[in-house]
Amino acid sequence: MASAEGIAGRARDWSHLHRPRPRGRRRRLAPDMTVFRYLWDCDADKRARAIGQLGQEERDAVERYWPEWAHDGQRPPPGDWRTWVLMAGRGFGKTLAGANWVLEAAKADGSLRIALVAATLDEARRVMVDGRSGLLSVADRWIEEWSPSRDLIRFVGGAEATLFSGANPDRLRGPEHHIAWCDELAKWEKPLDTWNNLQLGLRLGRHPRALVTTTPRPGPALRRIMAEPGCVATGGRTTDNPHTSAAYKETVQQLFAGTRLGAQELDGLLLPDGGALWTPETLEKCRRWSGASLPPFASSAVEKPSTSGTSRFLDCARNEREGGGRDEREGAAFTRTLIGVDPPSGDGTCGIVACALDEDRAGHVLADHSVTGRSPEGWARAVADAAAVHGTREVVAERNQGGQMVASVLRAADTGLHVRLVHASDGKTTRADPVALLFEAGRVTLHGRLPDLEAELLGLVAGAPYQGPGPSPDRADAMVWALTELMLKRQARVGVHIF
Fold first, then answer.
1. Has this prediction a pTM greater than 0.70?
2. β-strands 394-398, 332-342 pairing
3. CA 93 to CA 19: how far, in whole Å?
4. 148 with 136: CB under 8 angstroms?
C-alpha cells in the first residue's frame, strides 16, 4: 500500500502523475515545492484533476496526509499545556483535528490508554468513531479492532481508546488514561462532574493531556476549564476553513450573520450569560457595508484586521488621501478623526483603533490596526502608520501603562503627532457603558466587519469581569477612548483625568 510518507518523498517527481511533456517544457514544481503544497495552492477543479491522475492507493494516501492538509487552526498549539480547548464555529474542522490528534498519539506510543468523551455514547460512536471525520475514516489501517459492544478501539501497536459519556460521570471513576479527547463539551449533561472525574484519572505517563473540541455555549463549565492552569484555548470561525464549501459558508452567513446565534455557532465566540454591553444584533444594526461608505484603504482593513501592523495600507492611503482629516461617506463629512490607543502591558496587544466624528456629530469606527508582541517602538510605529493611513495627527492614549513614556515613544515615532494622554480611574466596563449606549441609540457606525474588536465588545458585561477572548479587551478599550474623546468628552471628565 502506498503511504503518505512515500508520496511526500517523491515530491519532485511528477512523471507518474502526468503524460510525457514535450522536451524543453519547464518543470511544473519548483525545487522546494512539495506535491501537497502544489495541490493546496491549486483551485478546486485543478486539484481534483491532479489527484484524479493518481492510483487509488496513492489517492487515498494523499487525501489522508494530515500534516499537509490541516489548516493552521487545526494544529496543536506549542508549549507545555495540559488542556487544549479548540473552540470554534461549525464546519471549522474540530472533529477532524481531534481524530488526527488521537491518531498521531496512538501511532507514536503503543502503550497509550485514551478516553473519548462525547455528550452521549451514541454521539461518541456516530461522530468520534463512525463519522465522516471520525477515527474509522481517519485512522483506517491503523485501527486493529473496533468493538461497539465494549466501546473500545484497539490501534495497531497496542494503544486503546475507550468511549465515555458526558451524561454518566461515574463511569470515569477508576479508569486511568494518558490522553483524552472531549467532543462538544458544551452539550454535556453533567460537564463539570464528568470533567472532574476525567481529570482525576488523567494521570498516566509523564505528560497527560486533554483536547476539548467544541462549539461554545454559555455556561460555567467551559469558562472554568479555560481558566485552569495549563489550559490553552484556540479557535476560529466557520469561514476560516478553506476546505468547507463556499456555498455553505455563504448560506449560513446570510442566515445568521449579525445574530447571537451566528456569533456563537459561526464565529465560535463564548458569549456572556447575560448583561452584555454589546450584542451581535446591536453591532449588526450599526454596521455599514455599502461601497460608498468605505474609502479604498478601509475595504481591506476592516475585513481582516491587521495583527502585524498597518504598513500594508500606507501606499494606498497616500495615493487616495492627503491630510485634512476629512472623508466623504454617503454625504457626511468627517470633521475630526483620531486614533485611540490602549498601550500593552509587556508583550501583549496594543489596541489601536481609528474613529471619526461627522458633521452631524455621529461617530464612526473606521478600522482596527491593533498589534501584538511589539516593543514600545514597534507599537508606536504602528500608531503613527495608522494615523497616516487615516490622514490625522490626533492620538488619544491611556497613560496607566507607562505614564509619560507612552507620549515619548509615540512622538519619537512621529514628531508631528498630537498626543493626548488620559488616565483611567474607573474599570473598563464602567468606561465602556456610555459608549455602548451610543451604539444602542444608533449614533455610531461600524464600518465593515472587525472580528477581533467585536469579539472583545461582546465580552464586556455590566457588573462582571471581562468574559471575551484574551486576558484584556485592549482593542475595545482603544475604541472606547477614541469615541469618548470624540463624543463624550465633557461627560468623560467626571471619571477620567486629561493630561
1. no
2. parallel
3. 35
4. no
135 contacts 66 by C-beta, under 8 angstroms: no
DSSP letters along 17-60, please? TSPPPPTTPPPSS-TT--HHHHHHHS-HHHHHHHHHTS-HHHHH
Instruction: Count CB atoms within 10 A of the CB of residue 463.
Output: 9
**Residue 249: all three cell numbers together:** 459558508
Q: How far is CA 63 from CA 30, 56, 352, in A?
A: 22, 11, 42
Contact 152, 114 (CB under 8 A): no
**The predicted structure's pLDDT at residue 290:** 52
Encoded amino acid at 414, one letter? D
Is the sign of the CA dihedral 6, 7, 8, 9 positive or negative?
positive
Question: Strands, E, within 308-388: which ranges?
Answer: 328-329, 332-342, 349-358, 363-368, 371-372
CA atoms within 13 A on the CB side of 398: 28
Neighbours of 28 (CB within 10 A): 13
Average pLDDT, the chain: 82
**CA neighbor of 210 nearest in space, from 73, 86, 67:** 86
pLDDT of residue 28: 57
Contact yes or no for 193/169 (Cβ under 8 A)? yes
- pLDDT value at residue 487: 94
First to last CA, the chain: 72
State which amino acid sits at residue 88.
A
Helices (H) and strands (E) in the chain, counts: 21, 18
Given a cut of 70, the residues of the chain with pLDDT beneath it are 1-37, 40-41, 43-45, 47-48, 58-64, 290-332, 490-499
CB 80 within 8 A of CB 116: no
Q: Phi and psi for 282 in degrees, rounded to 5? A: -65, -45
So what's the pLDDT on residue 452? Answer: 93
Residue type, 153: I
What gap in Å lies between CA 458 and CA 260, rounded to an integer? 10
Exposed, middle or buried, 149 (CB in 10 Å: 0-12/13-18/19+)?
Answer: exposed
pLDDT value, residue 381: 96
Length in residues, the chain: 499
Instruction: Output the nine-digit C-alpha cell for 442.
Output: 444608533
- Asked whether the beta carbons of 87 and 75 are under 8 A apart, the reply is no
DSSP one-letter code for 276: B
Please give the Cα distance from 109 to 106 (Å, whole number): 5
Element holding 285 (H helix, E strand):
helix 280-286
